[in-house]
Specification:
It is a single chain. This protein has 11 helices and 10 strands. By secondary structure, the chain is of the alpha/beta class. The strands form 2 sheets. A 6-stranded mixed beta sheet has the order 1-2-3-5-7-10, sandwiched between helices. The protein starts with a strand and ends in a 9-residue tail after the last helix.
């Protein structure tokens, strides 16, 4: 794996951390880092030993957005040839729970990267924003779609059209952040949550994630049908028997690993 993206194993089986490692530019996304992220998510999605992925940056920044050095003289055909949809798609297509541990700046593509996760844990120092409009551009990694779905049209419009930054507390109040924690506790809390999730029923976790994501792409009636069929399929799993037996015996379920 490229040195710009580090894979850190966690003592608990099934939990891995991907750490953006371009501290000199606040973890800005250049093409190499984008490709490394896509390759890593493709590989971890196929790795049966991996249950939960934590995505993190460093103390100063989760990710400060796109590396503008690669954008300054870029033409439209060049940007099209980069096929950014495939690189972002490798992250959004991951079937496993993804937790973004956001500390410091999460701006532009960094905010969009966090929104590709399933859970966003924000440190008190976290600063979010989509400032692309101030560069004469617009978001290109999904913010016009994901941010509006997360916090509603009117809040999203204000932030997208103004390019304003907002704090972790504001992100939480708007529904973008799942939790806000002290900076010093961010990664330990993220890993603790990942450990908790990794002990859950593998297929049920996958189906829940898929159903929630599908709800954003289909009418309510079709979403309910998708949920119902997924619910029914889970009755074929051993985890269903394990979970129900444990509940009836007032014990903790130990699902298949």
């Amino acid at each position: 794996m490229a040195h710009e993206l580090l894979l850190e194993e966690h003592p608990h089986p099934g939990v891995v951390m991907l750490r953006l490692n371009r501290p000199e530019v606040l973890n800005a996304l250049n093409l190499d880092l984008r490709r490394a992220l896509a390759e890593a998510f493709d590989r971890l999605d196929e790795d049966e030993t991996v249950r939960v992925i934590v995505l993190a940056g460093n103390e100063r920044a989760f990710c400060a957005g796109a590396d503008l050095n690669e954008y300054l003289d870029a033409s439209a055909p060049e940007i099209i040839r980069r096929r950014m949809d495939r690189l972002w798609g490798a992250i959004s297509a991951c079937r496993k729970p993804v937790i973004a541990a956001v500390r410091g700046y999460a701006l532009g593509g960094g905010c969009e990267l966090a929104m590709h996760a399933d859970i966003i844990l924000a440190a008190e120092s976290a600063v979010f924003g989509q400032p692309e409009v101030r560069l004469g551009l617009m978001p290109g990694g999904g913010a016009t779609q994901r941010l509006s779905r997360a916090i509603g049209k009117f809040q999203a419009m204000k932030l997208l059209l103004s390019g304003a930054r907002f704090s972790a507390a504001q992100a939480f109040s708007m529904g973008l952040a799942s939790e806000v924690v002290p900076d010093a506790e961010l990664e330990s809390r993220s890993l603790a949550l990942a450990t908790e999730l990794s002990g859950g029923p593998r297929l049920a976790l996958q189906f829940i994630k898929q159903a929630v994501l599908e709800s954003m792409n289909m009418p309510l009636t079709l979403g309910l049908e998708f949920e119902r069929k997924s619910f029914q399929l889970l009755f074929t799993t051993e985890d269903k028997h394990t979970g129900i037996r444990a509940a009836l015996q007032k014990a903790n379920a130990e699902f298949e690993q």
